[in-house]
């Protein structure tokens, strides 16, 4: 379970992340459809998946403008209700428990948090995180090494942003994505190349901010 390229990675369940306070900015959740390309593979009936905090959306629009010609951001999922987040975490934890029955509860929580955040610290429930990829102008997804949301088990660890053994093309596309998003102020969760956030606790840890700007919101 402890892949070599996990060394030095701070997981989102780490007490250093969980202990960061939130000073809620009050920014609204806004519908991003019509402002960025949005894929509907994870669409929910209420359209929650296509919402983000305004501050994150404006940064994504700035990142879009920095991509070379012919490249576009494609958002797969943004806001996620608390109940949905809890269900995803519980389901993935259950699958890990079945595959690795010798894990302690602490080990299980840590392992699960490589792929999905515990609900009490989850940035998707704050509208502060976005799962996205790169595509062409006509919407064809580019090779990123794994599909969006591939688990560490499914991908053999290739979902990790800095995973070794990627093709030259996939590595180039991941670097291209980072070169657009990092200057716009977003931070990556290094176990998931597609997961970027702004204003949440993990962002605060990475950037050295004393507080997070966004906490859990109801739709």
State Rg: 16 Å
Strand content: 5-15%
Q: Which descriptor suits the 3D outline?
A: globular
What separation lies between the terminal Cα atoms? 35 Å
Which class of secondary structure composition applies to the elements?
A: alpha+beta
Order of helices and strands: HEEEHEHHEHHEEH
- Count of separate DSSP helical elements: 7
Order the strands across the largest sheet as they lie in space: 2-4-5-7-6
Count of distinct strands: 7
Mean pLDDT: 92
Low-pLDDT windows of residues: none
The portion of residues assigned to helices is 25-40%
Largest sheet at a glance? 5 strands, mixed
How is this structure best described in words?
The structure is a single chain. This protein is α+β, with helices and mostly antiparallel strands. Helices cover 31% and strands 13% of the residues. It has seven helices and seven strands, in the order H-E-E-E-H-E-H-H-E-H-H-E-E-H. The chain has helices at 15-18, 54-66, 82-99, 105-112, 152-155, 168-181, 201-207, and strands at residues 29-31, 37-38, 51-53, 71-77, 129-136, 187-188, 195-197. A five-stranded mixed sheet has the order 2-4-5-7-6, sandwiched between helices. It has a two-stranded antiparallel ribbon with strand order 1-3. The model has no long low-confidence stretch (mean pLDDT 92).
């Amino acid at each position: 379970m402890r892949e070599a390229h996990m060394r030095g990675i701070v997981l989102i369940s780490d007490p250093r992340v969980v202990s960061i306070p939130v000073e809620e900015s009050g920014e609204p959740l806004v519908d991003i459809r019509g402002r960025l390309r949005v894929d509907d593979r994870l669409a929910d009936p209420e359209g929650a998946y296509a919402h983000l905090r305004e501050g994150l959306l404006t940064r994504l629009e700035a990142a879009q403008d920095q991509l070379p010609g012919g490249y576009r951001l494609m958002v797969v999922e943004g806001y996620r209700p608390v109940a949905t987040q809890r269900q995803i975490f519980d389901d993935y934890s259950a699958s890990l428990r079945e595959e690795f029955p010798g894990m302690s509860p602490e080990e299980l929580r840590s392992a699960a948090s490589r792929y999905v955040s515990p609900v009490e610290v989850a940035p998707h429930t704050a509208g502060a995180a976005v799962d996205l990829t790169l595509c062409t102008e006509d919407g064809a997804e580019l090779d990123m090494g794994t599909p969006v949301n591939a688990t560490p088990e499914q991908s053999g660890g290739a979902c990790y942003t800095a995973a070794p053994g990627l093709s030259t093309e996939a590595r180039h596309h991941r670097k291209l994505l980072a070169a657009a998003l990092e200057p716009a102020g977003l931070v990556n969760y290094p176990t998931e190349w597609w997961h970027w956030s702004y204003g949440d606790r993990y962002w605060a840890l990475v950037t050295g901010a004393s507080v997070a700007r966004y906490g859990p919101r109801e739709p």
